[in-house]
Design a protein that fits this description.
With 327 residues, the protein is of the alpha+beta class. It is 17% helix and 20% strand. Strands 3, 4, 7, 8, 9, 11 and 12 form a 7-stranded mixed β-sheet that branches. It has a 5-stranded mixed β-sheet with strand order 2-1-10-5-6. Bound molecules: ligand MTE.
């Protein structure tokens, strides 16, 4: 029983056709619904807004390139064109910095200097990695992956990073560890986020996987994209990339990784479990409660309503690697 009609991701955002005050009041109203537990009908993750992409460089030209990068031949192409870098770095979801797709400028406030990643919980070798050491310790490679958001848009991104299983081998989870939890950077003084919603969100952003999912060949930690360090808006300096799952499973700007025995609470699943399941495997046959997942819009140049629509693949096309995990 949706009280508010949520725009499809490729439609004109409400803020462009509604006076700002009306729009903001509505968002406050939505926050009220969230606190009242009526989130299922109105959650904003589907509220894709066309980004106000400008011609300005998204900050990525000043980022360090990775020398001698090798593209893993097993993941060198996906029968679709790689998304233009300028689009992938200016059409983002990063709610810590705002509730629209146009957060790339706001995200420049993320302080990435001297970044540490704590690995803790049920492991034999708990560690605190400095991000530079982490990138020296694990051999970096490039992988081209399909990327499918639960909101029914998609991209193809050349990531730089290393398989998660290498980090697992380094910290050695104990036999009691069954899940792994990823915790994103959060400082309310810096990640000012959607402001009027802040009270309703279970910050910090967290995501989690089963341990056998983490050990899968595809599960990847990205430190870069398009041959360079990750731009802040894309989750610098370390994010998860889980290509067979919807994009919200990939926590950005990770500060802590915790191995645990029980399935942990996660950000979107806490807000609306019926819309954002824990498993969240890409599946064209299971519609989201408010829209079909059978097809997806390919993020491209021009207006979002003109983007090409293509069929969505089971496991986002990665069934040969992961279907066995779910039998
Ligand atoms: N991680 C954090 N910390 N905060 C977020 O809001 N959004 C998720 C995911 N990781 C999100 C996050 C969602 S919904 C998607 S689709 C992807 O990041 C978007 O990644 P991109 O901006 O690099 O395309």
């Amino acid at each position: 029983m949706p009280l508010i009609r949520i725009k499809k991701s490729w439609e004109i955002p409400e803020r462009l056709v509604t006076p700002e005050a009306t729009y903001l009041n509505r968002r406050r109203f939505m926050k009220g619904l969230i606190s009242a537990g009526l989130t299922g009908a109105v959650l904003p993750l589907a509220g894709c807004n066309k980004s106000d992409r400008s011609l300005a460089d998204s900050g990525s030209s000043s980022l360090k390139s990775y020398p001698n990068l090798t593209r893993n031949p097993a993941f060198s192409q996906v029968q679709r064109a790689i998304t233009e870098e300028d689009l992938a770095t200016k059409y983002n979801n990063f709610y810590e910095f705002g509730g629209t797709k146009s957060i790339w400028q706001a995200a420049q406030a993320l302080p990435t200097e001297n970044w540490k990643v704590e690995v803790t919980g049920l492991v034999k070798n708990p560690r605190v990695y400095d991000i530079d050491d982490l990138q020296k310790k694990f051999p970096l490679e490039e992988r081209v992956y399909r990327f499918r958001c639960v909101e029914a848009w998609s991209m193809v991104v050349p990531w730089v990073g290393f398989p998660m299983k290498l980090l697992m081998a380094d910290v050695e989870p104990t036999n009691n560890a069954k899940f792994v939890r990823f915790i994103s950077f959060y400082d309310p003084e810096i990640t000012k986020g959607p402001g009027f919603w802040a009270g309703g969100y279970p910050w910090p952003y967290t995501e989690a996987l089963r341990l056998d999912e983490m050990a899968n060949e595809l599960a990847f930690f990205a430190t870069g994209m398009y041959g360079k360090e990750l731009p802040k808006q894309n989750g610098a300096p370390l994010r998860e990339v889980i290509p067979w799952k919807y994009g919200f499973k990939g926590a950005k700007s990770i500060v802590k990784i915790e191995f645990v025995a029980e399935q942990p609470a996660t950000f979107w699943n806490t807000l609306a479990a019926n819309e954002y399941g824990f498993e969240a495997n890409v599946n064209p046959n299971v519609p989201h409660p408010r829209w079909s997942q059978a097809t997806e819009k390919v993020v491209g140049s021009g207006a979002s309503w003109s983007w090409e629509r293509i069929p969505t693949l089971a496991y986002n096309g990665y069934g040969e690697y992961v279907a066995g995990l779910y039998q």
